[in-house]
Fold these 3 entries.
Entry 1:
Amino acid sequence: MELQRAWLGRGPLAWLLWPVSLLFGALAALRRLLFRVGIFRTERVGVTVLVVGNVIAGGAGKTPVVIALVRHLRARGVEVGVISRGYGRKTNDCREVLPGADPRDVGDEAALTRYLTGVPVFVAAKRIDAARALLRQHPQTRLIVSDDGLQHLALARDIEICVFDDRGIGNGWLLPAGPLREHWPRRCDLVLHTGTRPAFAEGFRSQRALADHAMRCDGSRVPLGDLEGQPVVALAAIAKPEAFFEMLRARGIQPRQCLALPDHFDFEGWQRPPRAHLLLCTEKDAVKLWRVAPDALAVPLVFTPEPGFFSALDAKLSSLDGHQAA
């Protein structure tokens, strides 16, 4: 937390780490050069690849963007698949995320994407391996969305979407003196802000709100209004748990207790609060929490990019189709 606070400005700690960031930047530049001259290989997989990533360390809201993209593309009739590293999983192989897969084996974000979209999802340490496996198993796939992987240069991509939250680029320095994985600005196709107060004007905005209902583990719904005034405990194991708690309060739900847990917490050995209050959590938490607390209710997040974002994406995809046809 102290380091993340230091990344917001150029104080003593950031200046102390600045020489190390120069080394980080030099190594990153050398790596990019090795890919550019062909010493390291960048490979195509034969279908359109769309990468959703960020240049800032930490969660910036990429997975909700991926889910929104998949839903949009499927509505257009595009056969879509998703690849991911499967952050936080205890395995390291390449595997498909099947319905009901244990998030400990595939990663919570990959499990959530599979649960909410129903499209093929594969995880692997190297995204190029995940892409190849997905196409072998699902050859009808015409477009692959990579959840993260902006810096995974071994996989050639056709469209890059760079996601920012309200931190923007922080103090503008590279790791570890600042939050940047690579220098900004850098070339990309689309910029999307996932927060409520974008730090700079470039790019498209989006809205995040809670759905009007909560979900039980069996898929049935409970109107969110029915929970007003009830004794509930809210918990969140996400990058910014307080944002979830604030959204609940804005909907008239006043939790008796708010539990902020580490991002990607797997709930193994977790003990619920002693009082038998109803548990409210995020969908990302629910795919893990329901194993130990099947009575918990998940409150879905409705993530909506501004309409111009999808129009710009569709235009880029159309230009790719025209180029390939030619």
Note: The chain has nine helices and 15 strands.
Entry 2:
Amino acid sequence: MPRRKPRADAQRNRQRILLVAKQAFARSGAETSMDDVAKQAGVGAGTLYRHFPTRDALLEAVYRTEVEKLAAAEGKFAATMPAGEALRAWMLLFVDYIDAKKIIAPALNTMLGDHTQVVEASFGEIHGAIRALATRAVESGEMRGDLDPIDLLRAIVGVSTVGSGPDWQQSAKRLVDILIAGSRPTKR
């Protein structure tokens, strides 16, 4: 029997819980109170636990939701923007994803211990999205043929790792523009 689609109110509750939980994990880390998350999301504890039976399940869902948003943006940007602009917009969103991951990672490490499987699964989605956007940009002639999309990710991740100050995001976003400009074909 096919699984039935959740009711609209249940989907809204789930999304609200995930948003509140992301903010709560950022504030309080792994010790975030599940009851506080439920209260701040405006749902009962039963509703929270029906969607997320454990703190680990909630934390993993928050992380996966961030990855899903990033992966889904590839299709949206590709459908609505020129190829080079879509690649740039996705890379800027990737900077925001890294920020969310930096917030969630300490709690993820504490709660899930070895969260390698969770993170490795996300790499496939992220790499697939940037490869599709970069391929489109190369094929359109907006980017050089030797563009390696993984190099773009490495550069941004590198800035986020080295720059732990409050302005690392602005620096990473400037780097996106530098990378895009440097990836354009040379004019002869």
Note: The first helix runs from residue 8 to 28.
Entry 3:
Amino acid sequence: MIVVGAGAIGASIAYQLAKAGIKVTVFDRGEVGGGATGASAGMIQINPDRTTPTALTTVEVESARLFPALAAELRERTGMDVGYRPAPLLHVALHDEEEAPLRAHRAWQADHGVAVAWLDRTAVLDLEPTLNPDVRAALYYPNDHQVMPLTFARALARAAVDLGAIVREGAGVDRLLTEGERVVGVAIGGERLHAGEVVIANGAWSSSWSEALRTPIPVRPVRGQMAALRTPGTGLRHVVSSFGGYILTKADGTTYVGTTVEEAGYDARPTVAGIAGLLALAPRLVPRLADATFSAAWAGLRPGTADGRPLIGRLPGWHGVTLATGHFRNGILLAPITAELVADLLAGRRTRLPVDDFDPGRFLVRAA
């Protein structure tokens, strides 16, 4: 089998296929995890609202449940620590007018089984004393976690290779090989490689195959900018989120500030306006970050879909091609379950969770 894309989704799929004893080759035009995966903050959070499809929440919960065992498995196989750590979240209200929306959000989530508590100002500052003392209240999510996203993707790829997979970096697929209504492989320059199945998992670039497959793959790039800071003293103990963005301290001591959500096409460059907004946010949430040292800025292109659900499944009208894309801001979170679902589909097994809500054909049905 061939997997196109070596981000968290593609690398995770390759690992599951290799574990099953399947010969798999992964192609990526850049490096493992070098796209949206490496640009992300690596948060593993379950934070649904009224607009979140039930099916999406179900797979998010199951995928989050898979992480502890997967992280331990990758460490045992590769010796790599993917940075799986608790990262409880504080979603803060800094102004009176922000309290009502937070209360409504918390009430809805509590009714739907989300572990979330309401904290007053004193309780918030007890948990995170360096927060802005003007904080009014916060929602507290004690069960969230994080990983180092680039390390996570690289560990998955290394584990897959150790099991016999081939990972080819700097090898962008030029075209899909087809015979009638079947995809039979890929071409890279003059090289042609055949496979029984091709999995399209190259994120925001998945739509580039629409013309060759004569079928729309409705995934679009959504830019997210990030900044990294080096801070004196100890880092934050929690992820601190607000209506304007979030900050968190990673396992290596770097503090991340994120993120923008921009319709900017395939322009993955950080901008002055975007980074300036993030740098203004940081000391507004945590005043001592005004003395932090600027370390880096970057941007990634998330693969978005019109209804906020990923595309997981066979492409209608074709044999030999499966989509695993469109995860938007949840690529890290959904990588473990997506890989298991795709492995089930390719093996002809009943999937461990229903995938009808992620069927790529749903957009074609609506169009008809």
Note: DSSP finds ten helices and 20 strands in the chain.
